[in-house]
Amino acid sequence: MGVQFPFFMKKPITISDIAIKLDISKSTVSRALKDHPDVNPETKRRVKALAEKLDYEPNLLASSLAKKQSNLIGVILPEFNRTFFSSALEGIQHVARANGFNVIICQSNEEFENEVLNTKMLASNKVAGILMSLTLQTEDFSHLRKLQDKNIPFVLFDRVADNVDCPKVTVDDFQGAYQVTSHLIKKGYKNIAHLSGPLGLSISKKRYEGFMKALDDHGFDQANAQVYECKLLNEDAYHSARKLLELNKDRPDAIFCVSDYVAFEAMRCIRDLGLRIPEDVALAGFTNDPATNYVTPPLTTMEQPAKLIGEKACELLLQHLKSEEHSEFPHLELPTNLIERGST
Amino acid sequence: MGVQFPFFMKKPITISDIAIKLDISKSTVSRALKDHPDVNPETKRRVKALAEKLDYEPNLLASSLAKKQSNLIGVILPEFNRTFFSSALEGIQHVARANGFNVIICQSNEEFENEVLNTKMLASNKVAGILMSLTLQTEDFSHLRKLQDKNIPFVLFDRVADNVDCPKVTVDDFQGAYQVTSHLIKKGYKNIAHLSGPLGLSISKKRYEGFMKALDDHGFDQANAQVYECKLLNEDAYHSARKLLELNKDRPDAIFCVSDYVAFEAMRCIRDLGLRIPEDVALAGFTNDPATNYVTPPLTTMEQPAKLIGEKACELLLQHLKSEEHSEFPHLELPTNLIERGST
DNA sequence: TTGTACGCGTTATCAC
DNA sequence: GTGATAACGCGTACAA
């Protein structure tokens, strides 16, 4: 006999309620409400008027169940707390909403296990599709294959994996790094170092490659290039910077950092050593986090169109949802934009 | 006859599939899967084994429909892009997940209209409840009343409204402001100004009041206190700071800013005027944004336990969901924590 | 143009 | 301990 509503709880209005009051059938109400073509304009008007009056709200759960397609798009992010991701989220939400979809988000917290759990949860919630940026730990992709088996389409953005076959959206990291490095070279710096991220991570690797290529193209000797690898967003960045800066003879006069936050740590370190920016050491980052504007001196960096990345990723997913032709999976590489500030 | 699955789409496993293969009824399968007490341990084992083997995933849509209660909690935030909110979100998600709920988030973008649309969407998705932080524009609360009519419980956090009756979680803004101001006084500053937010906003008002009270309690003349109101997060902050700093005779030797971002703007302004921090003008903010650590000098500020606020808000909602006694609506005011840095 | 009837996958009630 | 069966609210072939 179903669940009883507690006495204090008004039973929500349903299409049947409207049907009964108007003495027509549920189907007609359903059709009227969703602007089905074959329905008398007059009935449509009456239905809509009553729906409005009764403050009817469709039950999307029931609708999704019947249509086997929900209006929810799942998003899995490593962290909400980083400007890049929250901006991307903004873009995702924007496009999703414009197309009648809602967004349900999860945080993997950079842990692989959470990522797997999240994909399961989203699958259980029968989301229409998933947008995700992988964990730093992710090396096993069986959870993604399961999604494919269940025919839940997904798009990877920013943190993508080469050996997963799906639509992808990233920034042109190679070009971006190439440009920052060229900028440093043009500014006249002679001994340019790179504080890189884990080279197993595709983003870090591409930035590293862009850096090396720029050196080479400008007649620098790649073999002499000082590259220190560090874990992202960690005290580790500080220590790597320290090692780099304590080289006496060979101290770099400029450092290209793999991310703004790594650059901030390097900045702290440079100050701690009593050096000046950019006179003694110039510094460039990557991402254009809002904080780059507030540090002293403001940080030169590559702007990543985070919001645009989110929008594009969401658009790819929606395209995929509409056409059943998944012939080729596109990989969008968006351009970055150099922002020169006082640190170089 | 319902929707046909496209040929390429595997039909998802359901409890009926399991029931048929095991030659038992759906009901038993359902019970076994959710550890209902009245079910033979052996059947339970067999059901679970098969479910595992077939990679069965429950359809939460159907479940929610049947139970008239979804496992989704809606969250409406003014912006994702601010550390405070994304941290709060983290807390919310944490508690939600620990209790078997998922989070569906929306962004009002500081626009009232979006806020209203969001509440409707979430209601349509039949969320179990809603957590929200109001827009700066929000003055009309009829959308919240509608939620109450539909018996969708909600909790307000951070940006709350006095004349809405519901559980609330905020920080003790009055005390926080009182403490920062007292800190400035103890440091020996004599002419302390306040760059406040819009006084219509309860947060700004309370911080303003805490500021004034601290002055009064330490024998300062409230009437002489320089308070400049500015819109939050705007160029407006810069201009207000400028006006304040261009007072020749009466230039403050310390400024308590309503937020860290306002303080960053003030900082820019102070530098533009060729003044030193904290020698000429000391500066304190509010929130403890990560960037406070990277500016020069690092900013003294009040730490707001953003994540904790999110957790508490979510806990209040879950409590409310469990007990139908909504006798009293609690208002939690969490303590803040002074973080002294180089700017004072 | 409208109505009938059934299915979506799960849960809950009631009888056995 | 288990099995029918009727909801939950909506969408949609098919008939009228």
TrEMBL record, chains A, B:
Source species, domain of life: Bacteria
GO molecular function, one term: transcription cis-regulatory region binding
Keywords associated with the record: DNA-binding, Transcription, Transcription regulation
Pfam families found in the cross-reference section: LacI, Peripla_BP_1
InterPro entries: HTH_LacI, Lambda_DNA-bd_dom_sf, Peripla_BP/Lac1_sug-bd_dom, Peripla_BP_I, RNA_pol_sigma_54
Record-linked SMART domains: HTH_LACI (SM00354)
Protein name: LacI family transcriptional regulator
The keyword Magnesium is assigned to this record: no
HTH lacI-type domain residues: 13-67
Cross-referenced SUPFAM superfamilies: lambda repressor-like DNA-binding domains, Periplasmic binding protein-like I
Keyword rRNA-binding attached: no
